[in-house]
Inverse folding.
């Protein structure tokens, strides 16, 4: 992914796959809206935050698949299939929950190991933060489901941290 702008006309630099500050600001704004009793606004922000994670995870796994292929890794085809499966599942939300057979956060963590081996530290840190966000989104889906099943209002609940025992 390339972004033009601050470097001058015609020049471009690789943009990060994940913008941690954007994610955190959206979650903080959602939490503040919920605390003020603005559940609808908080929910809109949660949807934006969760969609950002979903889109970035697909993009990162596609980049991982491309890198694995370029490196002629034995698992390149498997990584590409997982990226395709995730993209299909996330682009067809009408299907409801889809069993992937893998944890996207774990795949992102595998990607960080490859990036570390290539000494691509900034990318490794960015993808690692995205893996944590993917885990947080999955955990918050669970929390929201529990709140709903108990008759509570889950709107705007999206910034609950993953308990240490469940984080990696």
């Amino acid at each position: 992914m390339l972004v033009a702008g601050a470097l001058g006309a015609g020049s471009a630099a690789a943009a990060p796959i994940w913008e941690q500050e954007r994610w955190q600001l959206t979650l903080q704004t959602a939490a503040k809206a919920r605390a003020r009793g603005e559940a609808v606004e908080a929910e809109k922000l949660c949807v934006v935050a969760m969609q950002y994670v979903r889109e970035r995870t697909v993009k990162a796994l596609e980049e991982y698949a491309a890198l694995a292929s370029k490196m002629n890794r034995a698992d390149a085809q498997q990584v590409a299939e997982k990226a395709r499966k995730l993209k299909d599942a996330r682009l067809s939300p009408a299907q409801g929950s889809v069993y992937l057979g893998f944890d996207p956060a774990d795949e992102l963590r595998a990607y960080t190991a490859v990036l570390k081996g290539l000494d691509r530290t900034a990318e490794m840190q960015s993808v690692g933060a995205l893996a944590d966000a993917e885990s947080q989104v999955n955990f918050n889906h669970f929390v929201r489901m529990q709140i709903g099943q108990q008759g509570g209002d889950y709107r705007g609940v999206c910034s609950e941290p993953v308990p240490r025992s469940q984080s990696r």
